[in-house]
Each structure stands twice: as structure tokens, then as C-alpha cells.
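Entry 12.
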Amino acid sequence: MTQPNTSAIKPVINADWWRGAVIYQVYPRSFQDTTGDGYGDLPGVTKRLPYIASLGVDGIWLSPFFTSPMADMGYDVSDYRNVDKLFGTLDDFDILVAEAHRLGLKVIIDQVISHTSDQHPWFVDSRASRTNSKADWYVWANPKPDGTAPNNWLSVFGGPAWEWDGVRKQYYMHNFLTSQPDLNFHNTEVQDALLDTVRFWLDRGVDGFRLDTVNYYFHDKALRNNPPLDEEGAFGLDAPDVNPYGMQNHLYDKTQSENIEFLKRFRTLLDCYDGRMTVGEVGDGARSLKTVAAYTSGNDKLNMCYTFDLLGPDFTAEHIRNSVDGFHKAVTDGWVCWAFSNHDVVRHVSRFTESGAEREHIAKLAFSVLASLRGSICLYQGEELGLTEAELAFEDLRDPYGIRFWPAFKGRDGCRTPMVWETGSPNAGFSTAEKPWLPVPYDHGLLAVDGQERKPDTVLHHYRETLAFRKSHGPLIDGDMTFLDSNQDVLAFTRSKAGESLLFVFNLTREPVDFLLPKGVVVKDILPMPGFSATMNQQVVKLDGLDGFSALIA
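Predicted 3D structure (C-alpha cells):
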């Protein structure tokens, strides 16, 4: 009997592995330095992959590591097909992917394609003349007769979204820094070139892409002015209230209808490979849910998106319910990725806490809530330790956004300080350099990984136990979700799938609460949800402040 050639049999890949997955975001320059230069690198990420796998997550998202002048910490790419020497080499990347896959972790990379660095060869060619082969690869426009910019569009990082170029005697558009010119997606050659760079990384084995500023790709061809928000002097959700960018209704500089067809092209490319995915970052103010619905519907564009709904200061039952309910009502056949923290916002333990004494309670409760929601979830490095936002001096800042708006807005460096590994070691084990790229706060060092692993009941242990709890109950991965009404600041809902129904009740207040279960909700068994000890007497769940409860229901 002829034996099958098993070496030629491809492993079965779950194409929907991302649905309900837990993704751990790594900010490489702040994760682990292996060279002593004060910057984290790809070999450092590889070194720490066993730790990441030990958390029980499904994959990692790597913030940009591409060749870049680093004006915006790598979100200004000058070569999409290479690793910046700050982080290592392509061989280092390949080793990282192989080790991640060996440990059962997927690898998602940050794809920044709405703009490039002004040092990218494409832009160097484009600005050289109005007639060269790449002249139309970026968004160029003539000045008004009085020499001013073509319209009133503003940059997210402050000032006009237009920069004058003396060579072409035209303005070019930049949604962010002046050194980040926007690509012209109306030119199909640009789309083709970008998709070729995506194919380069797919061929190297990446499992997915986090698409930075995914709704910024196209602009209005007519360059119409953005109108102000309805209320004079009002600020929207697109920027902090120190930034005039938030005073415009961004109808024309982003979220154009043409983006849909490009996302379909992107998905068509990904579907040529097994088990690949996309998650898009949508920053679109009050229209975010409508945009997410458009980008994830029909199973022919993005697999999922995340918005900024849970990245603000509100940690109340009403806000979380409204955000989750609003998504599920607006996005009927799409998927969401929830997060409380990332590299762009103040760490959520600082946003949600009223005093230092409750930091650990908030860190645990917030993660239990996040892990119970319907959707995929993203964790940001260090939140599993309960790290707070770092307070930095102005002279320590590296973020151009924070430097521009200091002191009213301190920027994003406070959430980007180095990961802390070893209690008592220089720079908490992040680097042997005398001065890392950002300082390591003393209080962060006290929360280092090794110290939390040696102690019981730490935030780190809570994250591991909660993820194990999540994986042991199918409804938490992709089951249905139904909210229960309450006139208190109590978040109550059920998760159900394949005959298993779970009840969750979270008290987000600082005071004890009695929650009366609705008629028809029958508890069969109280589940040992990690970190909480709420009790039930008949149909009344008794919760302390910042407490939680879970049960199996009929």
C-alpha cells in the first residue's frame, strides 16, 4: 500500500482565526534592547516571544519597523521592503516570524500606506518636476491666486495640511507632519505599487496587517473646503481640544467613497494567501461606526476595524454599553477589535482611576470587562502589568505631536516608555544603555515582570487567568451578546453560543451594589471568574465596588 507523502500536505489553517482573537501590541523600540543602544529591536522581540505566548494571546501586532528617518517614530516610511537598521535586519524579521509561528503566535505588522516619508524615493522623484513618471504619485495642488494654500484642510499634527515646495512651485498635502506627504490613491499606479509592498511581506509569512489611518487614503479631487462643525467653536472627536483640527467637519480630506474599491483590491490580494487578515484603524469622529460598517461589510474588504470609542476617559457602564451596542447595530455583518490602550493614547489605568490606591483594581476589572465583550481584543504592551501613564519632562519628549502642543497636550510619549522586565536592574532590564530613548519611570520598575511573576494575585497573573477563562468558554470567543437593563452603573450582559449561556455583571462604581436579575434569568452555576468574589442571594447579585460576577445560566 502506498503511503501518502505527508510532507506535501499543507496544514489546515483556520481562515477565521482572527475572530475573537487576542492580539498583543508590541512597540518595538520600547520592548527589549539587545544591542545596548537604548532602543528596542527585533531580536529583543524574538527574545521575549515566550513571555508573550505565556500570556495566552493568539498573536502579536508589531508597530512599524521599516526603514525610516524616524520623524514620527517609524510612521514615516522611506522603504516599505526593508527593516530599519535601528531594529535589525530582514533576517532578524524572518527569525522573529519563524519563532512566533513555532510558539503558535500569529504575526501582524503595521502597514502605513496613506503617506510616506519625504525621503522615500517615490517622493524624491515626484517633487523633482511636474512631468516625471511619479509626478502624480502624491497630492499636489497649485496655490490660490494670492499664494495661499489650496483650501482650509488642517494637519492632525497642527497647522495647515499643505506645504509649499519651491521646486515644483506647488503645495503638497500632508495629513500629519510636513515630512509625511500623502500618496495620491486616485492614481492606480500608486495602488499597484503599495499592493506590491504588501505582497512582499505576505511572502515572508506575515499573518495580517494593521492598516494605519485606513480612512485617510483618498481625498476629494475637487479639494473642497471642509465645513466647520455645526456648533461654533465646538471640537469633535478627531483630536484633543487643544488642536483646531477638531473644529472641522472632515468631509473632504478623508473617508472618501473611492476607498471602498481599494479595500476590495487589498482583500483580493490577501485572499490569494491562506488565513491572512486585516484590521483597520478608523479615526472618523462621530461617523466612525458608519465608516466601520462600510469597510467591514460583505466579507470582501477588511476583516475587522477598531475605533476610538473605548480609548477615551469614560469607564462607565453606560458608555461601554452605548459603544458596544452602537457598533452591533451599525455593523450588522462586520467585526470589531476592542482595546482600552494603545501607543497613541494615555494608558487606561491612568484614564480610569481616581486615586493611586485603586490602580490594581481598575487594571483587573477593565481587563475582565474587555475580555468578556463580543469581538476581538487588543492588548498594549505593559497594560498586563498595570502600568500607568509616565510623567515626562519636556526635554525628554520625542513625540512631535506632544512637542507641538506642549504643555496643553503632552503627546504620546507617556504611554511609549520602555517595557519593564527585571526589578532592580538598570532600566528595569530593558536596556544596558546609560540613557534609553525614553526614560524608565521608577514606579514602573516596581511593577516589572519578574516581580509580578513571583507574587500571587498580581495584575499579570490576572491577565493570564482571565485569558485562560476566556478560552475555556466558547461564547466568549464569538458568541452572541445581549445587554440586561439596569438603572445603576452596572454593566450586565449575556454571551451565548451552541447551547451555553453565560451571565456577566460588572460594578464599575466605587460603592457596593445589589443587582436584581431580570425575570427569566436562571443561574445554574456560579463561575469562578478570576479576581472577583461577588455573591448571589436568590435573584440578587451582591457586588462590592469595582467588582464582577459571572455565572452559567439556563
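Annotation: The first helix runs from residue 42 to 54. The CA atoms of residues 97 and 107 lie 7 Å apart.
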